[in-house]
Design brief:
Helices cover 57% and strands 13% of the residues. The protein has 372 residues and is α/β, with parallel strands linked by helices. A 7-stranded mixed β-sheet has the order 1-2-3-7-4-6-5, with helices on both faces.
Length: 372
């Protein structure tokens, strides 16, 4: 019997044909409708993110409301007033002619801080000064989350309304960073509600350790000062007044101290928390030159101007941490780094000054949970 050999190709395969058809269909769809498909996927992702942001900001607002009621014991419902606080805004001065803008900005910031604190005190009439400061920081964290939600929702709805692929794509690319920031503010709200030290208070913690067992006095706006001796040198340490959440105005305090001592200073050392690069360890210490202080720049301007006027060298020591670690409860690594910073301060003083000379040590940062 002769062997029958099937023809080449083995005949048609329905499953293979179906798969080929699906592949060609997907290629065709991605070629002509790829952008629309990607936009739809991004919109679904953004919709979930907006809902999560809404939940986080409402949670922070509820925490602020609950804390105000527990601590301040208001006679009336504080909800409407708190909602009004979350809608407050700040308009920066005109910078077309930059001459004198620092003074204008400093003035407006003072007005804003005084009004905000007065509004918070009105919400919590029975709260102490330290509790008012903590509540102010708690409300500011809620305000930041409220603003973040509104900005993200604005661009999400705008991109969806106009079917703008590039608006949606840009927002989608920034989404991981935005959600990371939102989680950090949420943690900050909880820390301020409980009066816990945060990572940003690393500089204040160093100053507090150096001020221990020394007579303290208050000066300028919410700044505490104490004089001690380190390695045979006079050292004036300063930090914001605690244990309420506060940063004070160290620039004004340093200017006053320089004037009180006739400009005869050997150096200014500034200690602050600083953002680390990804891959660096939390709590690492670095030394540098210049005024280590964040914010909009008004306080740094005052320090730099006064130091330049009197030819005083300014040194900086920083403790590295992430943005999340800066505004959430202080980690063990950050707290333990304070002793390492003090050793660096002693070494710097020995190397760069002579016995009997005067040094200013400024511990920069939010002093919530850190006493004098």
């Amino acid at each position: 019997m002769a062997l029958q050999i099937p023809p080449a190709g083995g005949g048609s395969n329905p499953l293979a044909n179906l798969i080929n058809l699906l592949i060609f269909g997907m290629i065709f769809a991605s070629f002509f409708f790829g952008q629309q498909i990607q936009s739809r996927i991004a919109i679904l992702q953004l919709d979930g993110a907006v809902r999560k942001l809404d939940f986080i900001r409402n949670e922070a607002k509820a925490l602020a409301l609950r804390t105000i009621k527990e601590i301040g014991k208001p006679k009336e419902d504080p909800s409407p007033a708190l909602s009004g606080l979350l809608e407050q805004f700040f308009i920066t001065p005109v910078d077309l002619d930059p001459a004198g803008i620092i003074g204008k900005l400093d003035h407006l910031l003072d007005v804003r801080d005084l009004k905000f604190k007065a509004d918070v005190r009105k919400l919590a009439p029975e709260a102490t000064d330290a509790q008012v400061n903590n509540l102010e920081n708690l409300v500011e964290a809620s305000w930041a989350l409220h603003l973040l939600f509104k900005v993200v929702r604005h661009f999400y709805l705008l991109g969806k309304k106009t079917s703008s692929f590039y608006v949606i794509l840009q927002l989608q690319m920034l989404l991981p960073l935005i959600m990371q920031e939102a989680e950090a503010y949420s943690g900050a709200a909880k820390a301020f509600a409980q009066g816990q030290p945060v990572g940003d208070g690393a500089g204040a913690l160093v100053a507090s350790k150096l001020m221990r067992n020394s007579e303290k006095r208050e000066m300028e706006k919410d700044i505490m000062v104490a004089e001690t001796t380190v390695e045979g040198r006079r050292l004036i340490a300063l930090k914001a007044k605690g244990p309420g959440g506060n940063v004070g105005k160290p620039g004004d305090a340093i200017r006053t101290l320089i004037e009180e001592n006739g400009g005869k200073l050997a150096m200014i050392i500034m200690v602050d928390a600083a953002l680390k690069f990804e891959g660096e360890k939390t709590g690492e210490i670095s030394e540098g030159i210049g005024a280590a202080i964040g914010g909009v720049g008004t306080e740094r301007f005052k320090i730099e101007e006064e130091a330049t006027k009197h030819k005083i060298p300014v040194y900086a020591i920083i403790i590295k941490e992430s943005i999340q670690e800066a505004i959430t409860p202080m980690k063990k690594e950050i707290a333990e780094a304070a002793d390492g910073v003090i050793q660096r301060i002693k070494s710097l003083i020995q190397e760069r000054t002579k016995e009997g000379e005067l040094v200013i040590l400024a511990g920069i940062g939010n002093t919530v949970g850190i006493a004098q």
